[in-house]
Design brief:
single chain
Length: 89
């Protein structure tokens, strides 16, 4: 998650001195904290973080297919040989 705008970036010293403000602003949008001029961490709203974590633990579509109870069942799926369909746009 990149934070591009200068207004959303804090040095470690600034963040320590104004932690309450960093937290309040992070509730609205991510806040970057830099160390030695480079992004070190990003402070985000806890609800946003939880949503991202839930999404990551859900897995990919490939994981879903691999976990299917039909995997290894011998079910044969055949593709139609009709070729590409013409579609009017």
């Amino acid at each position: 998650m990149a934070v591009e705008a200068e207004a959303h970036s804090w040095t470690v010293a600034q963040a320590k001195a104004r932690l309450s403000e960093v937290i309040e602003k992070a509730r609205r949008e991510p806040q970057a904290i830099t160390r030695h001029g480079k992004n070190a961490v990003v402070v985000v709203d806890a609800e946003l973080w939880e949503r991202v974590q839930r999404r990551e633990h859900r897995g990919s579509f490939a994981d879903f297919l691999l976990a299917s109870p039909l995997r290894g069942s011998g079910l044969a799926v055949e593709r139609l040989d009709s070729g590409i369909r013409e579609v009017e746009l």
